[in-house]
Amino acid sequence: MNPVKVGLLGLGTVGGGTFKVLTRNAEEIARRAGRGIRITHAAAKGLDPDTLPGVEDIEVTEDAFAVVDNPDVDIVIELIGGYSPAKELVLKAIENGKHVVTANKALIALHGDEIFAAAQDKGVIVAFEAAVAGGIPIIKSIREGLAANQIQWAAGIINGTGNFILSEMRDKGRDFDDVLAEAQALGYAEADPTFDVEGIDAAHKLTIIGSIAFGIPLQFEKTYTEGISKITGSDVVYANELGYRIKHLGITRKTERGIEMRVHPTLIPEKRLLANVDGVMNAVMVMGDAVGPTLYYGAGAGSEPTASAVVADVVDVVRAMTIDPENRVPHLAFQPSELSDLPILDMEEVETSYYLRMQVEDVPGVLAHVSGILGDAGISIEAMQQKESVEGATHVPLIMLTHKVMERQMNRAIEKIEALDSTSGEVTRIRMEQLEA
Ligand code: HSE
After folding, report:
1. List of domains in the chain
2. Is beta strand 423-432 parallel, antiparallel or unpaired with respect to 351-361?
3. Of 18, 202, 244, 249, which is the most exposed, with the fewest CB atoms less than 10 Å away?
């Protein structure tokens, strides 16, 4: 049988890795797919062919639309990233009857519903394993491996750059900007690194996880997003002293009132496996009613780890090409007609526990004021620590851990604490999760 012909859009970090993996492992991959898979066309701007041995054997153009419109190409791999022209290219490839593999989480999170509807009309596949958690096969695991379960929640470290920054700050006391520059040099960070540090990249990925876990449409705009740029070295130290680690988590949970979708720094007990996932590694914990807790760990970014997921998708597409479209695995795990309209909860409606840090005057009665406000709001205190005062300072740090409460109650209580004469500045609030089985 003739090899399947692939058109590759983008020969950067992931595109270059995909080219190398598909070339190096061609024989094994063909044995798995049942057919050879050959990159015949690619689109890249300003490519230096010396950096990618073998690339001289394929047709490289600067015009990505020429690849998408080429009748010889069976599968288009989109690795350009961003919204435009990636969206137009993917829709054009679908219109031309080509299957698509993409690593573009932003594109899927924002425009996935439209893209999947177009793909369904045309009977083609859009595969996106590499869009979430790099080389970890988390999409396949939830969509296929856990298909028997009612998923209860999923929580994960799904941005390698952010995890690398937090790990280096904690272990080596390194400076935020210095670690970010290293992540950029290593090719982990997004083109716009605020997507990493402000949680947008993680929110793209969580939107996709929530959708395939619970069978809901992709709703990126409703995902609560908070980054790590306000985390201070002292919060990292205080959390450690209390037996917790601060991780930037994406959390989605099904509750009786709706679905939680939230990305924010989170205190988790140091003994949890997730708390010990460091550097650029990613990990996602998924709780199913039948299977219980499961954990998926691996490289969340980087050239060949991400290429691993891209190429696995290409193999899946080749295997499924001969299957009737209606018998293929649905894009979002549930049949398109069976998606649910469960609401996404506003962050104020989410219940969680909290780490609070505030600067209080070191005088009698302050603790009573603060705990009085918390008590009036129905917030129960689990632990409290007052740090020693520094010579000459009028205020001292007060750390509190609370039991679970609705975020709305906590917001009101924080407003009142900040208004006290005996406190100074803003209250730092970091949400806390036990992630119990
Ligand atoms: N910037 C992303 C990260 C790349 O750091 O995780 C992988 O999606």
Report:
1. 4-135+303-338 (3.40.50.720), 138-298 (3.30.360.10), 351-432 (3.30.70.260)
2. antiparallel
3. 244
Hey, which residues are catalytic here?
205
For residue 190, the CA-to-ligand 1 centroid distance in Å is 6
- Residue 198, ligand 1, Cβ within 6 A: no
> For residue 269, what are its two tokens?
């007990």
Q: Tell me the C-alpha distance between 245 and 57, whole Å.
A: 50
SS3 breakdown of the chain: % helix, strand, coil, rounded to 5?
Answer: 40, 25, 35
pTM above 0.70, yes or no: yes
b (16+ CB within 10 A) / e for 390-409: eeeeebbbbbbbbeebbbeb
Residue of 105, 136, 157, 159 to test ligand 1 pocket, by largest number of atoms within 8 Å of CB: 159
Q: What is the pLDDT of residues 312-356, one digit of tens each?
A: 999 999 999 999 999 999 999 999 999 999 999 999 999 999 999
For residue 140, the surrounding DSSP H or E stretch is helix 138-140
Helix, coil or strand: residue 129? helix
Nearest to 334 by CA among 152, 222, 210: 210
Looking at residue 141, its amino acid is: S
Q: Which residue among 196, 198, 200 is best mutated to probe the pocket of ligand 1, counting the most ligand atoms within 8 A of its Cβ?
A: 196
For the CA of 162, the nearest atom of ligand 1: 5
